[in-house]
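A quick aside before the break. I want you to see a complete sequence-to-structure record at least once, exactly as it would be stored in a machine-readable document. Don't worry about memorizing anything.
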Amino acid sequence: MKINDKAEFEKQNTFGFGQKNTEYTQYFIGNSFLNPLTNPKESPMFLANVTFEPGCRNNWHIHHADKGGGQILICTAGEGWYQEEGKEAVSLIPGSVITIPPEVKHWHGAKADSWFSHIAVEVPGDNNSNQWCEPVSDDEYKHLK
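That is the input. The structure line, written in tokens, reads:
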């Protein structure tokens, strides 16, 4: 369900906004918020609730790993988009689960008219790294339906 009102979204965002995602601002168009759910020092799997304001999306990026790795997105509130390079964008709603293999260029974020949250699960692997690429252009984004 699309939710444009922040107060209404906060009621449905079960895992909470957390803090403004300032460390990665340069890799996002719009504002995002990060609420870590696990401590990487205590668990081999890092999970965080990532919240996107309407129209916010991250840049194209690639999760690299020599073995294992990748990312899983578990959509929890609002509506968003996920797109792999060379493929059509996929509409995301609460309950959608996206498995992103390592080495796949992709982006994800909110729809233009809805707040959006997903739990990001970093899949353990050997020599994991993240390569940030170019932003999703306004022209690409505005044509999503």
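Two observations worth writing down. The two ends are 15 Å apart (CA to CA). Helices lie at 6-12, 138-142. We'll return to this after the break.
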